[in-house]
Amino acid sequence: MTFRAEHLLGIEHLSPADITTLLDLADQYAEHNRQGRAHRDVLEGLTQINMFFENSTRTQASFEIAGKRLGADVMNMAMQASSVKKGETLIDTALTLNAMRPDLLVVRHPHSGAVDLLAQKVNCAVLNAGDGRHEHPTQALLDALTIRRHHDRLHRLSIAICGDIAHSRVARSNILLLGKMENRVRLVGPPTLMPSGVQDFGVEVFHDMKEGLKDVDVVMMLRLQKERMDGGFIPSEREYFHRYGLDAEKLACAKDDAIVMHPGPMNRGVEIDGTIADDINRSVIQEQVEMGVAVRMAAMDLLARNLRARRGAKAAGVMV
C-alpha cells in the first residue's frame, strides 16, 4: 500500500500512486456495496465526528453512510447550534473535540484553510469535506472513479470543466487530480467566472461552449455558486443557460460516448437541461453520488490504517 497520508486535506499533496491506491480500494468498495456486503470491522472501535459549518446534503450523508458501513461510531455535530455561534474560536473548538479523543474528523468550512488549521491542532485523521474556494478532495476522487469506470482508464482523456470555475473548489480539486493523471483539461465559461491566474493552471481556456466541448470524453458541469458571488457575474440565468448551459445541441460537439457529470445540487435549466441530466445513456450524475460513498469508505479506511500504525509505533516507542 502506497498511501501514507495522515490526513486528506486536498489533492495537491497526493501523488499519482496515492490516487491510484485510493481509487483501487474505492472500486472494490463500490462492488461490495452493490452486492450488499458489510465491512463492519474496518473502523470498529473508532469514532468519526462530522463537523459541517456549511449546509450539505450529499457530502454529509455520504460520509455518514460510509462510516457506518465500516463500523465506526458516527456523530454529526450541529454546528449551527454549537459554541461557535456563541463566539468560540475554531482553534478552541478543535481543542475541545481533541479532548474527546476522536479518530476521524470530517470537516466542511466556508473559509479556505480552516480544515488545515484544525488538522494541526488535533491528534486524529482529518478529512476535508470542502473548505471555502480551496479544495473538495473527495469530490474530485469520486469524479475520477466515475470517469475511470466508464472509460476504463484515467489518463490521456480530454475533459471539459464548464461553468463557474472561479468560485468552485470542486473545479480546483479536479484540475489538480486530472492534471496529475496526465489528462487534457479544458475550462469552459464566461471570462467573469474564470479565476485570476488561470493561464498558470496548465489547462486550456475556452469562452465558447461548443468550441470547448469539441471531441471531449467528459463534460463536467458546475453549479453557479451564487452564495459566493458578490457582484454581477452573469447578465441573467436565462442568458447564462443560452450560452453556457448544457443542452443537446452543445453536447453534440463532444464525442458520441462522452459522459455528463455534475457535482450537485443542480440548477436545471440554468447549468444543465433536465433532459440531459436524466439521460441514462450519457448522464452519470447518480453514479457520482454512489461512488461518493465508496470513495469516502476507502479514504477513511486508509487513513484509519495509518492512524493505527502510528499509534502502535508510538506505544512501542518507535519514532514515526
Write a brief caption for the model.
With 320 residues, this protein is of the alpha/beta class.
Question: Mind explaining what this structure looks like?
Answer:
Heterododecamer (2C3:3R2) of six catalytic PyrB chains organized as two trimers (C3), and six regulatory PyrI chains organized as three dimers (R2). Its EC number is 2.1.3.2. It is an enzyme of class 2 (transferase). This is Aspartate carbamoyltransferase. L-aspartate binds at residues 86, 169, 223. With 320 residues, the protein is an alpha/beta fold. It has two domains: 16-136 and 289-316, Aspartate/ornithine carbamoyltransferase (Rossmann fold), CATH 3.40.50.1370; 137-284, Rossmann fold, CATH 3.40.50. The protein is 39% helix and 14% strand. It is built from eleven helices and nine strands. It has helices at residues 16-34, 58-69, 90-99, 114-119, 137-151, 169-180, 209-213, 237-244, 248-251, 274-277, 285-315, and strands at 47-52, 73-77, 104-109, 125-131, 158-162, 184-188, 204-206, 218-221, 259-261. The strands form two sheets. The protein has a five-stranded parallel β-sheet. Helix 2 links the parallel strand 1 and strand 2. Helix 5 (137-151) crosses helix 11 (285-315). The longest helix is centred in the C-terminal third of the chain and has 31 residues, at 285-315. The chain is globular, with a radius of gyration of 20 Å. The two termini are 17 Å apart. 44% of the residues are buried.
